[in-house]
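Q: what sequence does this backbone want?
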């Protein structure tokens, strides 16, 4: 019985991978730039943040990393998650030719949930938030992982 429970938890937790076939820019559409960044945090510091849309993940960030991506302008529902956690969402409008910035942060509610593993699998590990773009000085202290 114990082995069955462990196998069930492993099967339900799953892994998140980057979608190599996800198209961010389609021909004939206006584009915008999206800067997504993750500042250093002890909480969730050992796991990767995955950012995507429609259950397709196109970006993976660790502590003190950022990426600038070109994406179709318009309305988007971005998702953020770690392996084996549910996704949180952020609705964002990207105007043509403009740059919008999104910060990720660990979900503070996750701190209490880690004490009960079943509950921890129901709480998003990361949250996304539209913010003012970081200064060049702040970005200089982070690793640019654009294009990876």
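A:
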């Amino acid at each position: 019985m114990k082995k069955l429970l462990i196998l069930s938890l492993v099967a339900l937790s799953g892994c998140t991978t980057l979608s190599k076939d996800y198209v961010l820019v389609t021909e004939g559409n206006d584009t915008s730039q999206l800067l997504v960044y993750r500042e250093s945090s002890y909480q969730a510091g050992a796991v990767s943040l995955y950012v995507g849309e429609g259950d397709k993940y196109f970006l993976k960030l660790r502590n003190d990393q950022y990426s600038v991506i070109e994406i179709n302008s318009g309305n988007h529902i971005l998702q953020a998650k770690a392996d084996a956690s549910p996704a949180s969402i952020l609705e964002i409008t990207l105007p043509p030719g403009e740059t919008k910035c999104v910060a990720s942060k660990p979900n503070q509610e996750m701190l209490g949930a880690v004490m009960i593993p079943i509950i921890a699998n129901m709480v998003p590990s990361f949250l996304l938030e539209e913010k003012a773009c970081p200064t060049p000085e702040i970005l200089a202290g982070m690793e640019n992982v654009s294009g990876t």
